[in-house]
Specification:
Distance between the termini: 164 Å
Helix content: under 10%
CATH class of the domain at 124-253: Mainly Beta
CATH architecture of the domain at 124-253: Sandwich
Radius of gyration: 77 Å
């Protein structure tokens, strides 16, 4: 377009320019003010024609992952499925801790009476008597002596002796009475000390010129052994004592 306008310009300038020929290949060869004057009026609009659709271009790269969408509405509950088959039994678990003791149950009925047991040994194992004339009991004696006869009995470790005796006593030289100790006594059969059944809880009496009766009874356990048992007196007074007939008995009991 620019070149065509330029030819027209050259033709209108006359012969002065015709003598010289120039080949213009770029607008940069034209002076800007001349180039500006060469601008023509706007031509009419061309026809609007849609071109043919070109071929499909190559597939583009995969785009970035989009943001997560909002949760959808909850679905309605489905029907209950059929019951599955029973699975195999599991292994036995460990034994649990012992539980607390429960409350006491009600009292049961009274049981039937048991059979009668065998007859036990008799309470009295042996009974022995002692009696007979007595002898003079000398004075100034701090030990017990037997008055008259004695009985000899044997006990086991768990048995005991029980007895009683009586004897009349007097002292012609004791008009105002004199003290003495008395009781039921025992002694090992092999001899030795004569001891009162009552220990230190013995009885004390007084004798006079006339006969007076004195009685004693006692019960004690001395363990296993064989014993002489009889009525005894301890006369620490200086006057002698006389006695009459002695009567007594002793039992061995379980």
């Amino acid at each position: 377009m620019v070149v065509a306008c330029l030819a027209l310009f050259v033709a209108s300038t006359g012969t002065s320019i015709a003598a010289s020929h120039y080949l213009i290949t770029s607008t940069k060869q034209i002076k800007p003010s001349v180039l500006k004057a060469l601008k023509g009026a706007k031509g009419p609009q061309g026809l609007s024609v849609t071109g043919l659709t070109g071929p499909q271009g190559p597939k583009g790269d995969t785009g970035a992952t989009g943001a997560a969408g909002a949760n959808g509405a909850a679905a309605s509950r489905g029907d209950t499925g059929a019951t599955g088959a029973t699975g195999p039994a599991g292994p036995t678990g460990d034994t649990g801790a012992a539980g607390a003791t429960g409350a006491a149950g009600p009292k049961g009925d009274t049981g039937a009476t048991g059979a009668t047991g065998a007859t036990g040994p008799s309470g009295v194992v042996t009974t022995a008597a002692f009696n007979g004339a007595t002898t003079i009991v000398t004075g100034s004696n701090s030990a017990y002596v037997f008055v008259g006869n004695t009985a000899t009995v044997t006990t086991t470790v768990s048995q005991r002796l029980t007895g009683a005796a009586e004897v009349p006593l007097y002292s012609a030289a004791s008009a105002s009475g004199q003290h003495f100790d008395f009781g039921l006594c025992y002694q090992p059969s092999t001899g030795g000390t004569i001891s009162n059944f009552a220990g230190t809880n013995y009885s004390t009496g007084d004798v006079y010129p006339e006969r007076r009766s004195f009685a004693a009874s006692a019960s004690a356990a001395f363990g296993a052994g064989t014993w002489n048992v009889g009525f005894c007196v301890r006369n620490e007074n200086s006057n002698s004592m006389a006695s009459d007939w002695v009567n007594g008995w002793v039992q061995v009991t379980n």
